Amino acid sequence: MLKFVKQNLENIDGVAIYPIISLLIFFVFFVALFAWVITAKKKYLQEVSALPLEDPQTPDQP
After folding, report:
1. pLDDT tens for each residue of 22-52
2. Residue 26 backbone dihedrals phi, psi, to 5 degrees
3. d(C-alpha 47, C-alpha 62), whole Å
4. What is the spatial distance between Cα 39 and Cα 4, in angstroms, rounded to a whole number?
5. What are phi and psi of 32, to 5 degrees?
6. d(C-alpha 16, C-alpha 12), whole Å
7. What's the rounded Cα separation, in Å, for the pair 4 and 6?
8. Whole-angstrom Cα distance, residue 57 to residue 61?
9. Burial, 62: exposed, middle or buried (Cβ in 10 Å; 0-12, 13-18, 19+)?
10. pLDDT band at 61 (very low <50, low <70, confident <90, very high)
11. Residue 43 has what pLDDT?
12. pTM recorded for the entire structure
């Protein structure tokens, strides 16, 4: 199976750019995510982390 795919990809001009583009997108995404985590406000992170533990509020409960 790999031989079949490799043989077909060798015939395409400029196919070597696709793995480089994929790596750059992957790297940029995780660098941006890391930067957001570092710069996020602690109050917001604590508020969001407590959301799964809160009781759901329904209109019929007093």
Report:
1. 999 999 999 999 999 999 898 988 888 888 7
2. -60, -45
3. 24
4. 47
5. -65, -40
6. 9
7. 6
8. 8
9. exposed
10. low
11. 92
12. 0.57
Tokens of 9: 């990809």
Looking at residue 62, what DSSP letter applies? -
Residue 41 CA to residue 49 CA, distance in Å, equals 12
Domain boundaries along the sequence of the chain: 16-41
DSSP 58: -
DSSP helix/strand/coil, 48: helix
Distance from C-alpha of 34 to C-alpha of 26, rounded to nearest angstrom = 12
Contact in structure between 15 and 9 (CB atoms under 8 Å) = yes
